[in-house]
Amino acid sequence: MRILHTADWHLGDRLGRIDRTDDLRRAVERVAAHCKEQNVDVLLVAGDLFSELARPDGLRETIRHWQEVFREFLETGGTILTLTGNHDNENFCQTLVSAMSLASPTIGRPGEVVPPGRLYLAAEPTFLRLEDRTDGFPVQFVLMPFPTPHRFFRGDAALKYGSPEEKNALLVSAWADALREIRAHPKYDPTAPAVLSAHVHIHGSTVGPSLFRITIEEDVVVEGADLPQQFDYVALGHIHKPQVVGAPHMRYCGSIERMDLGEQGDQKGVVLVDIGRTGRNGEPEVLSLPSTPIYEVVVLDPAQDIPRLREEFPDAQNDLVNLQIRYTSGKDQLEDVLRDLDRIFPRWYARDWQETGALGPTLVNPAEGAGGKGFGETVREYLGQELVQHDEGERDAILKIAEGLLKELEN
Fold first, then answer.
1. Domain 2-288, what fold?
2. What tens digit of pLDDT does each residue of 349-360 get?
3. In Å, how far from its chain's centre is CA 191?
């Protein structure tokens, strides 16, 4: 059974002012191409299919895109196994699971052999089996969503913690208990091939510059030392940095695109693994995925830097760029600087500019006193900079309102 492990699609996501829909859909299409080229039986998506920033109409279009891209894969007997991550909306995913259960009400009992050729979404700890399409032997799949109180706590357990630290400790315990219960299920065969997929932070992994829109304090870190001995392959999601954890067959595949500046150096990919009747055949293989360049550009002297940037970045139309700009009043025209940079880097996702005279107290003439600029002057300069790219009529209207409010304060 050939399994393609991927994770952290974040469909419908945004980076600053940039909608990432097209980037991410191209990445999904590349994943589908790998499925076809490698004759994959199971596409295993280890959580965070959707972005929490996705709008309802965007989610609908995302599912429609799935149908188009994976129609051939499913029609020829391929199976998609997915599970929910920390960025997946719990209510939406649970509704999706309920709708899928209505369509196939006999599917869903633990340890059941499920039919191929369809998508399965696990919104809670799930144990199912799939038969190999060639030789007919079953492979056990354990799907563990990101641990949240709704997914893992039972009864009044959610009321028994008084701090985030206590909640995380209870979730670590609940995650381990759920996995232990699945492996103790009467239909679970410890001698048969088994694959675990989990959206979770495993102790000992390398996070990289930062977690993706979640703090260390909010995260749940579980122990995973025993997992390589318990499973033939462990497919992890949640940490975007691709890596092996503890053993060659326990790994994070990483996200399918560079999602923010912290991932600018990551080489994205998916992992191909082959499971035979007696276990894993050989070592997992990484298949690369092209991804969008993302970087920061610092402009210290617009007159010199902008011509240089035109030469250095002639093909940056699709790059994601964070612009940090310094300019000097009287020497540089901010509106021209922003317009020139916009032509070079049309997909800038964030930008910040500062007049060099405002960079520090050493630039202020002591004879002017400690007060510096007055309140009104500061507000007028700030609005002038912030509105430089707005429609002229809209800018004038806002400045007129601000001027009236400032005069009222001054009087």
1. Purple Acid Phosphatase; chain A, domain 2 (3.60.21)
2. 999 999 987 555
3. 35
Among the ranges given (54-58, 129-133, 142-146, 163-167), the one the predictor scored with the smallest mean pLDDT: 54-58
Whole-number Å distance between alpha carbons of 137 and 386: 64
Q: Report the residue count for the chain.
A: 411
Give me the residue label for tokens 């304060």.
409
For residue 320, the 8-state DSSP code is E
Q: What are phi and psi of 288, to 5 degrees?
A: -75, 155
Task: Render the burial of 202-231: b for 16+ CB within 10 Å, e for the rest.
Answer: beebebbeebbeeeeeebbebebeebbeeb
Place of tokens 């997915």: 82
Sign of CA dihedral 328, 332, 333, 338: negative
Give yes or no for a contact between 116 and 141, defined as CB atoms under 8 angstroms apart.
no
**Span 292-349, pLDDT tens digits:** 999 999 999 999 999 999 999 999 999 999 999 999 988 999 999 999 999 999 999 9
Cβ-contact 152, 178 below 8 angstroms: yes
For residues 406 and 374, give the distance between their C-alpha atoms in angstroms, rounded to a whole number.
11
Number of neighbours of residue 118 by Cβ within 10 angstroms = 14
Band (pLDDT 50/70/90 cuts) for residue 96 is: confident
Please indicate whether residue 138 or residue 209 has the higher confidence score (pLDDT): 138
Q: Collect contacts of 97-104 with beta carbons under 8 A, ≥24 apart.
A: 97/121, 97/122, 97/123
Q: How many CB atoms lie within 10 A of CB 38?
A: 16
CB atoms within 10 A of CB 93: 21
Q: How far apart are CA 269 and CA 248, in angstroms?
A: 16
Q: Is the Cα torsion angle 386, 392, 394, 398 positive or negative in sign?
A: positive
Q: Which residues partner with 350 through β-bridges?
A: 322
DSSP 8-state class, residue 329: T
Residue type for 154, please?
A: R
The residues facing 354 across adjacent strands are 326
**Residue 32 φ/ψ, nearest 5 degrees:** -60, -35
Q: What residues does each domain of the chain span?
A: 2-288, 294-410
Tokens 């393609």 belong to residue: 4
pLDDT score of 367 more than 70? no
**Alpha-carbon distances, residue 113 vs 43, 98, 250 (angstroms):** 17, 19, 24
